[in-house]
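Supplementary Text 2. Reproducibility record for the structural model of the 204-residue chain.

All settings were left at their defaults, and a single model was retained for analysis rather than an ensemble. We include the record here because the model underlies the residue-level annotations in Supplementary Table 4.
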Amino acid sequence: MSRPGATENEAGLLRLTEAIEKLTLERESVLHKETADRRQFLLTEAKKRIADDYDQNFAEGRADLLEGFSSQRSLQVNQLRRQLFIQRREYAKRVFADASAKLSSFAAGDEYLEFMYSLARDITSAWDCSAAEVRLRSKDLPLQSRLADIFPADCCYTGDEAIVTGGMMVWIPQRNYLIDERLETRLQSEQRWFFEHSGMQILW
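Retained model, structure tokens:
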């Protein structure tokens, strides 16, 4: 069996390039359609880093494939794909680490106070919080005097070490239900959503 010529190799590589680019564009389209406003600051940074990583690594991989395009083509393609996805996952981890740092900075600023009051109003408008236990960071316990104007008078306030970054948890005894509105919980939820919809958990 004769080896394919340079023209066949380039045509095959072109089809491969188009297939990978089409897959990437389809995933970006799905992300764009399903991204809500509150997810945008995470996805924008991630997509930028992914695009930069894709351009750099695919260019290097394309050059390698042109030099040695032969019976090992499938193996090389799979290795390239695996490398791209691994590096994309690493970039995504960095994005969420940056987001975590920004949340910590937010929780130390003046806007955090209004966020906490707004959060309390949202919870009390959606739930009967009578006799509820409002759990806060230890450093947020001084806010209870203001929160007492929002939550029912029979609520109690406790410090909870499970709240690291900020936000609150509210235990509603009559429903045996815990409302978890910690900032770190919100970030974890965004991270799960991001990985599920970006395809970054798939390694070929």
